[in-house]
Amino acid sequence: MSGSDSLSGEWDGIFNYPSHLPPKTFTAVLREEDGALTGETTESSEARLDPSILHAWLEGRRSAGSVRFVKSYDASSRAHYVVHYTGTIASDANEITGQWHVPGAWSGTFIMVRRAAKTESIERKVAETIR
User: Fold this and answer.
1) Residue 96 CA to chain centroid, in angstroms?
2) What 8-state DSSP symbol labels residue 103?
């Protein structure tokens, strides 16, 4: 695997609930080394009275064009939630789509999109200015 298709980096995502709840956005930082995935996520809480930020840890594996990982929240109020993710990696390694589930509870879909590198954005702006 070349460095260009590594999943390491910053990601923005959204996950959908299977019921009347609205979709939730999240950010993730992934680190990939020899197929092992680790990382963390940040998302806002659903609680209206306590709109805090939730943090979770990711651990899993990449196998060719797919990923499997588990998300474990660090908040004691969510310690019992372990969320399992299974996804498909786009051919350019900049998008992951798939399913999540909490065993015995509920499930839904998710999508993650890699954030563009700042240098790419700067290079694009410079190129547009020179033209």
Assistant:
1) 8
2) T
The helices-and-strands tally (H runs, E runs) of the chain is 1, 8
CA angle 57, 36, 24 (to 5 degrees): 35
Of the candidates 77, 79, 59, which has an alpha carbon nearest to the alpha carbon of residue 69? Answer: 59
At 98-116, the pLDDT tens digits run 999 998 888 999 999 999 8
| Residue 38 C-alpha from the chain's centroid | 11
- Overall size of the chain counted in residues: 131
Could you count the other beta carbons within 10 Å of the beta carbon of residue 7?
A: 21
Residue 14, SS3? strand
Alpha helical stretches, state H, 1-131: 118-130
Token digits for 18? Answer: 């299977």
Q: Report yes or no on whether pTM surpasses 0.85.
A: no
Q: Which DSSP letter does residue 76 get?
A: G
